[in-house]
Amino acid sequence: MAALKSLILILMMAVVAASQSKDWEPVPQNELQMAKPQVEADADAEVLFWEVRIADENINRAGWQSVINHHVRIKIFTERGRELNSKIDITYGNLASYSARVVVKDIFARTIKPDGKIIELKPEDIFERDVVRGNGIKVRAKSFAVPGIETGVIIEYKWKEIREDIYNYSRLELAREIPVQYVKYYIRPASNTPLGMRLHSINTTSGFEDEGNRIYSTTMRNVPAVKDEPRMPSEYEVKPWVLVWYDDNRVDQSAADYWKERGRATYDFYKSQLKVNGDIKTAAAKAIGDASEPLEKIRRIRAFCLASIKDIGDDALGLTPDQLKAIKPNNSPPDALKRGTGTWHDVAMVFGSMLISAGFDVRIAGTTIKNDAAFDRNIANDYFIRTVVVAVRMESGWQYFDLSNRYLPFGMVSWPIEGQTALIYDREPTWDTIPVSTPEQSVRRRNANLSLAPDGTLEGDVEIEFTGHLADFYREYADDDSPAERENYLKELIKGQIGNQAEITGVVIENLFESEKPFRYRFHLRVPAYAERTGKRLFFRPEVFARNTSALFVSGSRRYDIIFQYPWSETDEVAIELPPGFAPESVDAPPGVSDVKRGVSYTAEISLSDDRKTLRFKRNATIGTNGALSFPRSSYNVLKGLFESIQASDSQSVVLREN
Amino acid sequence: MKYKLFLSMILVFLGGAGQVFAGDTPPAWLRQAASTQVGTYDKEVSAVVLFNEQQVSLGGDGMLVTTENHAVRVLTREGRRHAVATALYLVSSGRVRDIEGWLIRPDGSVKNYDKKSVLDVISDPDDVYNEYRLKVIDAINDSDTGSVFGYTVVSEEKPLYFQEKWFSQEGLPTLVSRYSLSLPSGWKASGITFNHSTIEPQVAGSTYTWELRNLPYIKREPMSPSVVNIVPWVAINYYPEASSKNPDKSFANWADVARWTSALYEPQVIVDDAVAAKAQELTMNAKTELEKIRAIAGFVQNLQYIAIDIGVGSGNGYRPRPSNLVLNRGYGDCKDKANLMRAMLRSLKIDAYPIAIFSGDPTFVREEWASPAQFNHCIIAVRISDATEAPTVIIHEKLGRLLIFDATDPYTLVGDLPESLQGSYGLIIAGENGGLAKMPVTPSESNLLDRLIEVDLSDDGAISGTIKERSTGQSSSRERAMLRLLSAVDYSKMLEVWLTRGATGAKLLKFTPTDKKDDLRFDLDVEFSAPRYGQLMQKLLVFKPTIVDRRNALSLTEATRKNPVILGSGSVRETIVFNLPAGYTVDETPENLKMDMPFGSYSTTFEIKDNKLTFTRLLKMNRSTVPVEKYDTVRDFYAKMREAEQSPVVLIKK
After folding, report:
1. Which residues in B lie closer than 8 A to residue A528 (C-beta atoms)?
2. Predicted ipTM of the assembly
3. Which terminus of chain B is less hemmed in, N or C, by CB atoms within 10 Å?
């Protein structure tokens, strides 16, 4: 009976699949004659028509399957548009990107010239390629060159895709890298399942319409192309798309009830995970030692966990695939403690268990992350809850500890979860927001003691250190490099800031793995021809490290909002011994910059020693004060102006005159 | 390079997916290589090749069987990337019989990578289809400092011709590098050595062995010759003794190569009605020979570049697709484009010949070795009358005046040639009349960027004004490429970055790029302003006279160098007129500079007249290879240029 049912379903899907045929609908005359893009004036090519028909099924024995018919029609406006659309590769096989096995068939394509002449793609011009094969992997591609493609033509192609063993969640893209005049998705949910299909439209108000026969559709018109801009939000926060998933068919359950139930169930799960036994108690007591303050106790337990249990996901350990395979999974926190290895999640569980044994009130909290679409609590699904932190109840409220990051000092969490929504799993779950760090927690401090020679050569010793998120970035970058690579990285970094002629020697790197201390570089710097000479004067920038840096924002226009990952501050102190025979002619402090509302401030001071032989330059900048990290597009020009002012101040020169 | 990048992506994607069997014993050659003591190397040397051997054997069945044994010791963590075995093969005429690898860890334990660990990947993901594939063993993630990775590859192929190349190293220091060729009795081999004194083979019967030891590390230096022009290599010809001249598979000279290649090209020139009609349509308004050539060239140049490599083993790598098919499909590769252009010109009674050439390094093709294996690109020579003149004309002793043109480069117009091809040897495929010829080199004056900037300088340091650029030759090709490769938004951003790099906070007010193809020119007009260009310092107003393209970094900074410096050809002429603010007078300007060297010249001048400051800079570079002994002269030349462009002008309040 089951087999018969499966057969019927397969036949039904075959009927859907059959809709992908070589028959083309006539292209409207206005599209043939179209000379300019409609959605974006500067577009190289524009999608005129984009239609996707999806039919899901849960077939007995065969499993979940999606049959997807794609059809796209594109107008080519420029040579660049022609180049970018001239070759089509459709991959299939075992594709990790879909977590599915994909079959592709029924490819048809044609080119329509402005005079209506049609050039069909010949079947023999479609090439099948094994992109990768071996060791159980087979990724293939069907590729073809679009015949007769040139500016002014319309290209049109369609194909059928069958995804088997699909992952529950899928994302329907409504925007592309070129503008889209019209896009429509038809979707028919699987019928042979107790689960119900859920659709969540993001960055679009286009809902789904019932087309009858259990088919639903969503349509968008005039969708701009997805672009890249510096400091923009996540792509999924700005472009339109739809999240599709299957869930328990409990349409009567409110979002609030869903989260309550989910929070309780997850609490129960973690309660069983946070095991306290004698070993945990002993370890906690040993780690705490003579500490009496609660925060100090937590600090010591965290330090103990990070030191005692190696995170097998840490690339700095350099574990080979065989070594990783040989590591047995831990069943409980005592297990991880005993073995001294585990995932970061294991470390978090040991940390939580030790805190409980020390009398702390501990919960696990699920959080969203910054790199995806904005979280909507009214949607009854935890897809966007991506990671967990350990929450500890303190007098001031919940405090969060992120054991996934070893390079941050105590009390800080990874930047992607700062300011994010957290669900504290409990019998009565509660929502909270993870605090954002302050600029003082992520500091770049640069000190230099230099001397300037009459020929303009600058030379001396430099120390650069980073704390907080900045240190995390540099530590993560350097942790799996060799000493030579680390030194090379620093050289490139400094040359990028000062110029290629900078010579960096005697490099010392300190506190690479000691997260409670600043990550520090020390080195000797020599920059030939640093100061410029005109006649009897020498000119140089006292802000040595910004000599060659470029503006943060350059473009005169902006499409998306502006986002900084985390707040930070910068402190520079530079002492420059002036060359003999020269005296300062113009030594003015660069103007300061301040915008309290946007959390940006900059001050600079220049002074001369009493004997006027040494110039001292001090500079302080903070960005993101009071959590000001996200700005609407309308603030772009103001923000750009602020950073240009900082750059101009950093560029200000001092003039010396030969006696 | 492209395929290496793709390969690394694949390896990352697969993340050490290979199945590994521990405990197998490595072969004796690998155990011996692994026991070799290595010396002390500079810390930038990440690995050392202990042993690199190719044993090539020509069988009675005409198949060439190659056994490659290779061992590398990883010296640093970065050196792990060398723990990879790759074997390139051609689906249509060859195969990899066997590939196996071993990793000997510092503790002496061994991992064996057998056929289940092997991935088979496409060699060029950009091609619609390409018969070349790669078999890969990836031991990167398994290896670490001190590991020795070795592999053996046994492959076979049916050679298209009787020639081989042996590159002794790829850049890493190499302790032993060996190539041996075993031939059937009655066969002989000979070699030509490049980048090294002659390497004589050891001959035992009909087996020839070339060997080098203790090859040093090839340091990567900016403006350096390509690695193939640094590492020692041997070009090998082999042939049956009875007949030293085998027109099908052996080449005694370039005329032989030209005949062989012509046989592959000639039948593909098909002038049917469609080809002739298209040629007529394109040249309908052309009055002169040059106009006709330009019309055809423009069409072919703008056909979509698509490579489909099928039947390479039977010569299709050297054979274009039929011209009528390429016109019908509307796309093709370099051979296809040159061939279609040839067919269209033939329909207009204009003769043309394909030229096989190497793209990427004009010094790559060596005259001493007559071989089609030296080329990777195809351009065209058009036979022209005396009435047609252009900088890219060569005089051929048999074919007369030939206009050289690259129908694949969409940015370089008729009358110019991509810089990477200028001065290179190319094979003119013209049957009995063909042979090797030197491609033209355009004078640096014809590759000119002429820029005029006029700005008003305010007493608060702000500037506003215009930039007018007129580019010719390869300068115009670069501008044309930029306009076409970047989207309109990105092109505008590129100009904004260009301006703000020299002037903080500069605003791009208006820009007009104009591609004047008929004049072989590209114009760019820009209007801009910069609020903080000059710096006010009490009574002084200080500003840099060079606004855009100000040299603030140097590529030649090292005190010493190991390789010659390769310099391209071109010239820049810039005039900047500053209208000075009222109430200020010029206190100091940088000194005028004049440098004249064999490889180039540079000069700056300042002139003050009617409250205008006019600054000019002229740069002319000649295509040159500067020997290592004269490295200082080039480094100082660029350092002085940089200083000259950084030094400011000082105005003082009256």
Report:
1. 639
2. 0.87
3. N
